[in-house]
């Protein structure tokens, strides 16, 4: 059964987001009034969706942020004033906070052996998997999706362990995602997730 | 219904611990729109008993998490763009009719002032040991129903609980809004309803 996957995140035991990837196309450009700077400044070509966003890790958002007009007059105008990369970063932090709070809540209520699996809203569903070493995987899919726990587990054992842990060049700690964004892992992940869709 | 099939001892002859047994509806929490816990009742085994302070913290935490989950929608920009396009379309349509004030403003009497669907926060959470169903009313009161992972028709139960709340809490002239619920009738009706659910399997 095909399932629409929106995004995928990995957090290390220091609560840092060390990998994230989106599978949703960038939103269509706003009609009229919002044309300046919104789409043109990014080097986003439409096909390699949002992977470009994650590559720019160190210098956050040298692109827009400045003269994006507020001539929009309402709605999502304030959103445009910040670059997509910064917003993606914020999203990752929010997702970690959510997942962390829910996990603690579940442990408190269900006992220490209980584990948080997923939550669903009307718009999306978040799946969660945590390894014993506190590596956390989160995946956002369409709300109707079945449990993706085994998928996350597969990603862990077949991709993470194979291409990141067993990579002699990869560091032990993945500060700023170092060692995670290697070609094999990225390709394997993309192939695997696109196979689900 | 299905009295014959539902006898748990026949279905699971050797169940001994509570984790795998049917536990039905385990607990109900009601959180007011400010994140304060106003009602807390446990109907069965299955969750750790917390002290009242921990429950208050839990309610507050959940309130915050609920707000965050509502704005994490990965498609929000797509939907916003879609909505925007629709608005423009309508604007042009109504402009050709009236041609009046072109200054910004939401729906100025267009044919159908449609709004984007408001983002819903967390609705269902699943863990290995239990399931949490959350119902957020129009006024921001949240009903949290903890059930076992196999419980079906939680929506119906939630609906009924909300009905009971409307009937026996909101219609109680002595109940103060947003304050802890202390209504005997509500307690009794709720207890009997939940017992009915838990015994019907």
TrEMBL record, chain A:
One of its GO terms (cellular component) is Golgi apparatus. Residues 61-70 have a biased composition (Low complexity). Its main location: endoplasmic reticulum. InterPro entries: Longin-like_dom_sf (IPR011012), TRAPPC (IPR007233). Keywords: Endoplasmic reticulum, ER-Golgi transport, Golgi apparatus, Transport. Residues 36-50 have a biased composition (Polar residues). It is found in: Endoplasmic reticulum; Golgi apparatus, cis-Golgi network. It comes from the Eukaryota. Residues 33-82 are annotated as: Disordered. Gene3D superfamilies: 3.30.450.70. SUPFAM superfamilies: SNARE-like. Pfam families: Sybindin (PF04099). One of its GO terms (biological process) is endoplasmic reticulum to Golgi vesicle-mediated transport. Part of the multisubunit transport protein particle (TRAPP) complex. Belongs to the TRAPP small subunits family. BET5 subfamily. This is Trafficking protein particle complex subunit.
UniProtKB/TrEMBL annotation, chain B:
CDD domains: TRAPPC4_synbindin. It is found in: Endoplasmic reticulum; Golgi apparatus, cis-Golgi network; Golgi apparatus. Keywords: Endoplasmic reticulum, ER-Golgi transport, Golgi apparatus, Transport. Its main location: endoplasmic reticulum. GO terms for biological process: endoplasmic reticulum to Golgi vesicle-mediated transport. Belongs to the TRAPP small subunits family. TRAPPC4 subfamily. This is Trafficking protein particle complex subunit.
């Amino acid at each position: 059964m095909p399932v629409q996957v929106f995004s995928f995140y990995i957090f290390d035991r220091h609560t840092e987001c060390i990998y994230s990837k989106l599978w949703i196309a960038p939103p269509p450009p706003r009609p009229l009034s919002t044309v300046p700077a919104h789409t043109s400044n990014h080097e986003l070509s439409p096909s390699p969706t949002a992977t470009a966003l994650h590559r720019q890790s160190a210098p956050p958002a040298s692109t827009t942020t400045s003269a994006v007009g507020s001539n929009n007059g309402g709605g999502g105008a304030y959103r445009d004033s910040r670059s997509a990369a910064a917003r993606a970063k914020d999203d990752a932090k929010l997702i970690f906070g959510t997942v962390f709070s829910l996990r603690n809540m579940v442990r408190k209520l269900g006992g220490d052996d209980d584990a948080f699996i997923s939550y669903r809203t009307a718009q999306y569903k978040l799946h969660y998997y945590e390894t014993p070493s506190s590596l956390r995987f989160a995946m956002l899919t369409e709300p109707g999706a079945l449990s993706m726990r085994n998928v996350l587990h597969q990603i862990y054992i077949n991709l993470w362990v194979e291409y990141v842990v067993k990579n002699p060049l990869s560091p032990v700690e993945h500060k700023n995602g170092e060692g995670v964004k290697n070609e094999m892992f990225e390709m394997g992940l993309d192939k695997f997730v696109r196979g689900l869709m | 219904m299905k009295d014959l099939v539902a006898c748990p001892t026949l279905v699971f002859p050797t169940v001994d611990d509570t984790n795998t047994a049917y536990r039905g509806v385990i607990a109900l929490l009601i959180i007011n729109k400010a994140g304060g816990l106003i009602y807390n009742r446990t109907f069965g085994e299955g969750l750790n008993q917390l002290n009242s302070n921990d429950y208050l913290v839990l309610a507050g935490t959940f309130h915050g998490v609920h707000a965050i989950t509502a704005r994490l929608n990965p498609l929000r920009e797509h939907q916003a763009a879609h909505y925007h396009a629709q608005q423009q379309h309508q604007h042009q349509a109504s402009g050709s009719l009236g041609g009046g004030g072109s200054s910004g403003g939401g729906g100025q009497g267009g044919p159908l002032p449609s709004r984007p669907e408001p983002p819903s926060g967390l609705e269902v959470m699943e863990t290995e040991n239990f399931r949490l169903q959350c119902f957020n009313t129009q006024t921001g009161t949240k009903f949290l129903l903890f059930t076992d992972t196999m419980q079906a028709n939680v929506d119906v139960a939630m609906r009924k609980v909300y009905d009971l709340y409307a009937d026996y809490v909101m219609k109680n002239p002595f109940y103060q809004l947003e304050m802890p619920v202390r209504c005997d009738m509500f307690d009794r009706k709720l207890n009997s309803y939940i017992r009915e659910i838990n015994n019907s399997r």
